[in-house]
Specification:
This protein has helices at residues 10-24, 58-72, 87-109, 120-130, and strands at residues 28-36, 39-47, 79-84, 113-114, 136-141, 148-153. By secondary structure, it is an alpha+beta fold. The longest helix is centred in the middle third of the chain and has 23 residues, at 87-109.
Length: 154
């Protein structure tokens, strides 16, 4: 990371952080930064990048949390997202498929179906995916880190 005292823009700070990670882990990967609709998106793509994702995205989530802090330094207004090796898109597709299976099961059995415990961001994907369906409803139960999403017939 840069160590001089000049103030970096959020985009520059995010790029600097992600490039530092690529260099530190000796990855043959590229960093890209996009900004739009109130979101600052940093991506890492390339050979070995998937190693920065971690189990169920745990390392990626930690990197994103750090990126939010570094890029915005207490500022507000932008949301920082980080994706590595296309993990977020793949994970969201898996979660939508799991949500559809749970909805089908809840309707077939006529009773609520509890999904495995998941992070708040993953629960949000499922809630949003099933939100417009009139035949099922969703809610979350339990305490972190064992909080789980419930899909029930309406």
């Amino acid at each position: 990371m840069e160590t001089d005292d000049t103030e970096l823009t959020p985009s520059e700070a995010l790029r600097d952080l992600l490039e530092t990670l690529v260099e530190a882990f000796e990855l043959d990967a590229e960093v890209a930064i996009e900004e739009g609709d109130g979101v600052l998106l940093g991506t890492i793509e390339g050979s070995g990048a998937e190693g920065l994702v971690g189990d169920r995205g745990s390392v990626l989530d930690a990197i994103q949390h750090l990126a939010q802090r570094v890029a915005l330094r207490g500022g507000e207004g932008l949301r920082v997202r980080v994706d590595i090796a296309g993990y977020r898109g793949k994970r969201e597709a898996e979660l939508r498929a799991e949500a559809d299976r749970a909805a089908a099961r809840a309707l077939a059995e006529g009773k609520p179906v509890a999904l495995s415990p998941m992070l708040a961001a993953d629960r949000r994907v499922v809630h949003e995916h099933l939100r417009d369906r009139e035949d099922v409803r969703t809610h979350s139960e339990g305490d972190e880190p064992q909080r789980r999403l419930i899909v029930a017939p309406s």
